[in-house]
Task: inverse folding
């Protein structure tokens, strides 16, 4: 499966509930096989939870938060505040962001989690792209086969037909200029 195709599909609008289900299925297929969905509009900061038993006395609770919110640090802080407010006990927080997370933001979130006494596992677009490319059946269930997508793409009208005649001429002139002189710098 092409990583570019997966990335392109993730960038397109997607229903929030569908996106949450997609992420849950990705996590189930990756490293959280006992994940239980809790989410909803008022999820108390936890979209899903997994309890791992290591021996008769040790339990590790992992809480998952899924978000498309762009202000990643603020979303993390609100999630932690909400988990504290609802007295949700957890050892590990997995936050799945739809967008890429910059290293500066990642370090800030990790430092906050360490100070608060829990582990944070930050996953973002690159994680989702890699997992969906690896698990083709999950990708196809949510986005269709490559053939379905190609057919939908080809069934759309030609964008140049919708453009004005002046825009069509400008696009064709730009392409012609580039073809005749590809080394030339365009501003």
Result:
């Amino acid at each position: 499966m092409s990583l570019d195709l997966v990335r392109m599909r993730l960038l397109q609008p997607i229903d929030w509930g569908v996106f949450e289900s997609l992420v849950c299925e990705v996590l189930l297929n990756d490293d959280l096989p006992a994940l239980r969905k809790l989410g909803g509009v008022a999820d108390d900061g936890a979209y899903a939870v997994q309890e791992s038993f290591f021996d008769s006395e040790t339990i590790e609770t992992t809480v998952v938060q899924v978000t498309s919110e762009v202000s990643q640090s603020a979303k993390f802080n609100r999630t932690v505040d909400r988990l504290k407010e609802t007295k949700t006990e957890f050892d590990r927080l997995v936050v799945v962001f739809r967008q890429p997370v910059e290293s500066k933001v990642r370090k800030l979130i990790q430092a906050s989690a360490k100070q608060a006494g829990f582990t944070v596992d930050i996953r973002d677009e690159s994680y989702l792209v890699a997992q969906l490319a690896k698990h083709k059946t999950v990708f196809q269930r949510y986005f269709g086969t490559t053939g379905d997508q190609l057919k939908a793409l080809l069934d759309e009208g030609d964008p140049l037909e919708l453009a004005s005649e002046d825009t069509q001429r400008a696009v064709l002139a730009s392409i012609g200029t580039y073809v005749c002189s590809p080394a030339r710098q365009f501003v």
Summary: Residues 157-187 form one domain.
